[in-house]
């Protein structure tokens, strides 16, 4: 059993996490945590209780451990700021699978939030004008995502 502190010393407001070496080394074997606890390096333990101090904010470390345990992190339940914070932690610990997963969610969210180039009213005016002059409407390379263009005719 490994005990990890994010604040040096006991009773100073830090968070304590307990896990196993297998959890830290199995899912992401090339990560910083796997390297730290693989036995290849000497890990400095804090106090007689055997805590390992990691100088990081412990806010998201439970998500890091859950990712290492079962490959799941609550990315969709986090705010945008929390996603970016978790991404920063995943990058620090070199958890490439988690980094990729967070980036997928962030990129998907950006794609969904793209505003259309025109409003429904703009499209209606364009169609009306084209109809009035006997022409056609061609919209090439225009983002119309999210617009309800039903019943225009």
UniProtKB/TrEMBL annotation:
Which InterPro entries does the UniProt record give?
Answer: BTB/POZ_dom, Pentapeptide-BTB/POZ_domain, SKP1/BTB/POZ_sf, T1-type_BTB
Identify the pathway.
Protein modification; protein ubiquitination
Q: Which residues form the BTB domain?
A: 6-110
- Per its UniProt record, what SMART domains does this chain match? BTB (SM00225)
Extract one GO BP annotation from the record: protein homooligomerization
Q: Which PANTHER family match?
A: BTB_POZ DOMAIN-CONTAINING PROTEIN KCTD9
Q: What is this protein called?
A: Chromatin remodeling & transcription regulator BTB-POZ family
The organism's lineage is: Eukaryota, Viridiplantae, Streptophyta, Embryophyta, Tracheophyta
């Amino acid at each position: 059993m490994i005990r990890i502190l994010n604040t040096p010393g006991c009773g100073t407001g830090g968070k304590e996490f307990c896990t196993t070496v297998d959890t830290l080394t199995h899912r992401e074997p090339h990560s910083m945590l796997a390297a730290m606890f693989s036995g290849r390096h000497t890990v400095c333990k804090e106090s007689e209780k055997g805590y390992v101090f990691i100088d990081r904010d412990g806010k998201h470390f439970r998500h890091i451990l859950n990712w290492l345990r079962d490959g799941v992190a609550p990315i969709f339940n986090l705010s945008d700021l929390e996603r970016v914070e978790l991404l920063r932690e995943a990058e620090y610990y070199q958890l490439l699978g988690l980094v990729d997963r967070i980036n997928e969610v962030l990129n998907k969210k950006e794609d969904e939030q793209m505003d259309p180039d025109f409003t429904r009213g703009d499209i209606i005016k364009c169609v009306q004008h084209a109809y009035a002059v006997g022409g056609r409407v061609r919209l090439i390379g225009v983002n119309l995502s999210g617009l309800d263009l039903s019943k225009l005719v």
